[in-house]
Design a protein that fits this description.
Layout (H helix, E strand, L loop, with lengths): L8 H8 L2 H23 L31 H37 L1 H15 L3 H12 L3 H28 L2 H8 L4 H9 L4 H24 L11 H8 L7 H34 L1
Keywords: Cell membrane, Membrane, Transmembrane, Transmembrane helix, Transport
Family: Belongs to the binding-protein-dependent transport system permease family.
Subcellular location: Cell membrane
């Protein structure tokens, strides 16, 4: 390129591409891999008593130290990844799936059906999520299936509101009106014409819901109402070792940092979506 020439649009776009999105993908990809392969990569069993020293220091044998019973923190962290990430991911998928479908149905139908669905979701969203979770656990006990259903039900109304708001706007566009004039069935209009044109806000909302669900489940486990012993997720690892913060800080900090990095990684990906949309509007 000759001196004084302007860089091409492709070069400028690459120069503006945020590194934060790639970093977020790297962090989230790492933890997803740990959720899948963590139990097989763990050097010890989740409940194996490997040391007589409780809250042992970081060493080559125990890279993250030991907990209040002398168990390896690294192994406990890896065994807890499927519970923290897997349950949260499944609950988020269910919440967004039902929320988006209900939002599409309400936006496409209108009238009394739209009003009935919207008022029902408004009533549900008025209940604080933690209060709802405490009521569910107090009523039915704590189990992994209950935590999954509870988290999905708690965050479905928020997903519905986002999906309906976007779907109502898309429904007014010309290509949807053309599809209606052709006599296309309502399921075709909802899932072929409307849904592909609302994927970006839906995916952004999915990322936010996932972060909320991770924090909710971790808070429930910290209160002793989440995943029950002998199983453990990252929130329960913080709770059971909190009394040793002064002498074995790594037993508390390791799962706390894992939760923090996972949520930060997801937020970096979401921010990169917003930056990309802004660049597309500018170009």
């Amino acid at each position: 390129m000759a001196f004084g020439d302007k860089p091409s649009k492709v070069v400028r776009r690459r120069a503006k591409r945020p590194i934060s999105g790639a970093l977020g993908l790297l962090i989230v990809g790492f933890w997803l891999l740990m959720a899948l392969a963590g139990p097989w990569l763990a050097p010890h069993g989740a409940n194996a008593l490997v040391s007589f020293e409780v809250f042992g220091p970081i060493s080559l044998e125990y890279p993250l130290g030991t907990d209040f019973l002398g168990r390896d923190i690294l192994s406990r962290l890896l065994h807890g990844a499927p519970y923290t990430i897997g349950v949260a991911l499944a609950a988020t998928i269910l919440a967004c799936l039902f929320g988006v479908v209900l939002g599409l149905v309400a936006a496409a139908s209108g009238g009394w059906l739209d009003a009935a669905i919207s008022r029902t979701q408004d009533a549900l969203i008025a209940i604080p999520n933690k209060i709802f979770a405490l009521i569910m656990v107090a009523s039915f006990g704590s189990s992994v299936p209950l935590l999954l259903v509870m988290a999905a039900f708690a965050y479905m109304p928020g997903s519905y509101r986002i999906a309906r708001a976007v779907a109502v706007n898309v429904m007014t566009m010309d290509f949807v009106q053309v599809a209606r004039a052709r006599g296309e069935a309502m399921p075709y209009i909802m899932f072929i014409e409307v849904l592909p044109n609302m994927l970006r806000p839906v995916l952004t909302d999915f990322g936010l819901r996932f972060v909320y669900v991770v924090l909710l489940l971790s808070a429930m486990s910290f209160l002793g109402l989440g995943v029950q012993p002998p199983d453990a997720d990252w929130g329960s690892l913080v709770r059971e070792n909190i009394q040793g913060l002064g002498e074995g800080a790594s037993a508390v900090l390791a799962p706390a940092i894992a939760i923090a990095t996972l949520t930060v990684g997801v937020n970096l990906i979401i921010d990169s979506f917003g930056a990309r949309a802004k660049r597309e509007m500018e170009n």
